[in-house]
Write a structure and sequence with these properties.
Pseudouridine synthase; 3-stranded antiparallel sheet; 3 domains; Structural Genomics Hypothetical 15.5 Kd Protein In mrcA-pckA Intergenic Region, Chain A; alpha+beta; Alpha-Beta Plaits; single chain
Length: 277
């Protein structure tokens, strides 16, 4: 009897949706960052098909997902267009987008997102200026890992007896209340009375640190605006309370500057990411 040829393994069905780790899939859909999703799982708030999944569990878009008992709908178009916004936020305007509701975006006059808008290193509510938003969790994760290496420009309105020696001391400052600071440039524009302006360039230094440093010396920062984030500038053509789509050239410049600031061993495109982003 002639032996039978080996049976060919059946190819996976084309209509079978691919499985992805729950953190990655929800992050890419703009539901929340990967760390947020991990916290929801540990707290038992996130369930898949009625059960709390393990960290790193895989799921498909067909699985039933709930967060705090409410259904989570994944928007998974065949090719999801990367959307990134430049937003000119007014000082005191709260950028609370963690509610995962369209209402939060509507209050800020933001366009609709596939999931929800995620802010890249958002400013505290008391401050304002340039904000970068995206509804793509994977892109947000990639950029957030390297923005600390970028230089940032702030414009400060000072209230108090600002003097040259204080500006010189600020330029040489390396810490604030035990936290490291890196002041690259500080140029004062003295006005009349108690109001003065200070243009500051920093790296890995939060706006709150800048405020606290001056407050400890009797100078109140009555207004602080972020006007540059790495290679991205806040232009005068973008009024307060308005947003615009970030150009592909601006996105590429941001990614390139982040990659250039990484150690050589960490450079390169993340697996599965699009180098054109």
């Amino acid at each position: 009897m002639r032996p039978r040829p080996p049976r060919k393994q059946s190819a996976p069905r084309k209509d079978q949706p691919p499985s992805e780790r729950v953190q990655k899939l929800l992050s890419a859909a703009g539901i929340g960052s990967r760390r947020e999703v991990e916290r929801w799982i540990r707290e038992g708030r996130l369930q898949i098909n009625g059960e709390v999944p393990a960290l790193g569990a895989k799921l498909t878009p067909r699985d039933r997902i709930t967060l705090d008992g409410r259904p989570v709908r994944l928007h998974t178009p065949a090719v999801k267009e990367l959307r990134v916004l430049l937003f000119h936020r007014s000082p005191g305007e709260n950028l609370d987008l963690k509610a995962a509701s369209s209402r939060a975006a509507e209050l800020l006059n933001l366009p609709r997102a596939f999931g929800r808008w995620l802010a890249i290193q958002p400013m505290p509510p008391v401050d304002g200026g340039l904000e970068i938003l995206t509804d793509d969790g994977s892109w947000a994760h990639r950029v957030s890992q390297g923005v600390h290496a970028l230089t940032v420009d702030y414009v400060l309105r000072m209230r108090g007896p600002l003097k040259d020696d204080l500006v010189e001391e600020f330029r040489a400052a390396t810490d604030c209340e035990g936290e490291a600071m890196s002041i690259l440039q500080a140029d004062a524009q003295y006005g009349e009375g108690f109001n003065h302006w200070l243009n500051v360039t920093v790296r890995a230094t939060r706006s709150a640190q800048v405020r606290h440093w001056w407050a400890a010396r009797g100078i109140i920062v009555s207004r602080l605006m972020r006007v540059r984030f790495g290679p991205v500038h806040l232009s005068r053509e973008l009024p307060r309370g308005h947003s615009r789509a970030m150009l592909v050239s601006e996105r590429n410049a941001l990614i390139n500057e982040i990659d250039a600031a990484k150690p050589t061993s960490e450079q390169g495109v993340e697996p599965g990411s699009d180098p054109s982003l």
